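Collaboration report, partner site 2.

Our partner group contributed sequences for two proteins of shared interest, and the home lab folded both. The records are reproduced in the order in which they were received, starting with the first partner submission.
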Amino acid sequence: MLKRVLFIALSYLLLSACTEERQVVDSSGSEADASIENNLIITEPVIVYSSRQEYLIKPLFERFTEETGIEVQYQTGEEGPLIARLQAEGEATFADILYTVDAGNLWSAANRGLLASVDSAVLQQNIPEHLREPQGQWFGLSVRARTIVYAKDRVDPGELSTYAALTDSKWRGRLCLRTSKEVYNISLVATMIERLGEEATQSIVEGWVENLAAPVFSSDILVIEAIAAGQCDVGLVNSYYLGRKQVDDPNYPVALFWANQETSGVHVNISGAGVTRYAKNPQGAQLLLEWLSTEEPQMMFSEMNLEIPANLSVPSAEQVAAWGGFIQDSINVEAAGRLQAQAVMLMDRADYR
């Protein structure tokens, strides 16, 4: 207990000095409110290990504290080191919640036995089945769609359709991609393996490589900028990266196209969280997750980072809504982690670097 109090005190000092991504569900919040009211009074803070940037989580945690009186303390860092730290700490960990981006990272933590199963009617109601781990070890809290972007002046959106169609010879020398080493692309390919099988997926990835206009880029922003500059005409990115460009310049020369709307739906991934296996404050941790799945914080997610609410009954931010509604791929996002190794090997065989 003394160690935990000391950690909380040190965390507070560090954070004070620190600045730094067609079902209808009832998200009225009544169940979440009842859950908070019916639990024992929680006097200890909830401690979060998070790979999300401070500006994206601090307003949410402060709002939660205002509503419930439960303090939230957090430590931020990269996904890999945070998961390794959680594993190294074992039963002595201070963390009550692991909060990170990409289902592959959450799957990895769960696969190492670092997360606990949570049985919550609130979370099951608010978070669609394909956006949460089947045993309740983690839950998506916002959606990140990876889809097609294109040059407005050089591409007729009527030419676009699916991820696989980008292998067509008409896109030879016109496609830009981010590196295969990025987890977002690994997860996209892993999900394709789940749906299409390895042979078909490898054929698609090889077709992408054949159509590249330039060596792969290190970020989605660089892909978008290359399209705007005329270096290529189409690419694959997470939608919120384009949204940021459009906020700064409503006439930005790159537009978004929702892929696979006549087939499997757009590939989606998540930012999400789970209660740690050795949480010292599991009740507080569960209440925080439940609260994050309700209307106000879901809208805050969308407004702050132009992501899409995981709770499908909550409207997206205006900039996101302007892209129009779309069908999500219904495959459970846990496939992004379960098939991650196969995806990496497949991309290597396809010479996608």
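Second partner submission, folded after the first:
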Amino acid sequence: MTLESDLACLRRIPVFKTLPPPRLKLVALMGERLHFDAGARIIAEGESPDGVYFILDGEILLSHASSDGRARSFLFETGAIFGDVPMLCGQPFVGTATAKSDVSVLRLPRDLFFELLETIPDFAIALSRDLASRLYRLADSVLHREKVH
């Protein structure tokens, strides 16, 4: 992929839409582009986050099997972010992340992620809105006992 195509992919992710062009270029250059085949494990439950993942293309399933054998899952699709919640609260991943389809992600290292939050208010606001949206969907699912997607 070229830098221009990486920038085009990043511009489609809501939290990056308001990022100034020089910062977006920094994200594209400093982020690590990764590809996972369908079925590949991306993160194991209990691991500590070392970066935040932005899904450029594909779907990732975060799942947890309880002691009674019942599994619960949460689907992340193109444009979604994952890894930000455990990183922000200093906790390990609560489930295993697996590529549901072939997936391309951009992984931002911890330091760059926090630098963006501290120095670019529009990025911090966009991330806050994204977190609030995910929290709302989760609360709606728990209260109405429906599948979270």
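Feedback sent to the partner group on the second submission included the following. The mean pLDDT is 88. The longest strand covers residues 51-57.
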